[in-house]
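A favour, since you know our structure tokens better than I do. Go ahead and set the record down below.
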Amino acid sequence: MREFHAVSTGVSLLTNAQKAGIVPQSVRTSDEGYWTEVLENAEKVQALYGFLAEDPQKHSAELNTLYRATEGRDPADIEVYLVGTKTAANELVRRLLERNLREAGYRIFTPYEISGYFGEVSRFDPAYAKDEFVKGLGDLLDRLIYLGIKKKQEGYRVRFNPTGGFKAHVISCALAGFLTGSEVYYMNEDFQSLVYLPHFFYLPKGKELEVLEFLSKESCLTGPQADEFLKQYPDEIDRLSTYQLLEVEEDTIRIRSLARAFLQGLNRSTG
């Protein structure tokens, strides 16, 4: 099955290169002048790529996560969208990661850059740069949701990887995954393994609302009462449990706080 991975891309490669002495540690990733100069210097770019190629998973958090998530699959069936910003440092990283991915046989989705603040603040007023950054977040979320839906319609298994980048971009990437009902995974360095996040966001409808309304009036259902309720609403309870709105354990069904908050908001808007 074909897969589409949207990967929020940061600059872990550059910080690791600094630790290894490939790049001066005094240079900040926000230094547009320095990284623009590196981008235009083929020798420096090649030195960074050589560092990446030595051990892609050790030197890049994004590739470490992606390669683990796609292990054992045919790279030709996997399309990767490296979500990046309009900054010299991020552009440099994405070029290097894309090269490594292509050499490994992966397909690259045409990148779409969003404001990274540092690219604008070096040329424009800080207030304008901030506004562009915020606007870019909205554009990014809209595009990621569109792509998630479109790729699913085309038969892809859609997966979001919010590992790197600004916190705001990481959140946007994860939120797009939740809103499109896609898989969301990231790399937890303490665990040294992939973490797949549960589905945090879902809008109940139809009989699902009936289930939640009923359970909101009960502390929980247990024993025969829970069994009977499960027989009456098997599909609805399965979906609500998948999206973390219900807690189902053996012979117990309990509504979660998230579902109660949703019902309260719904009642306020319709009351």
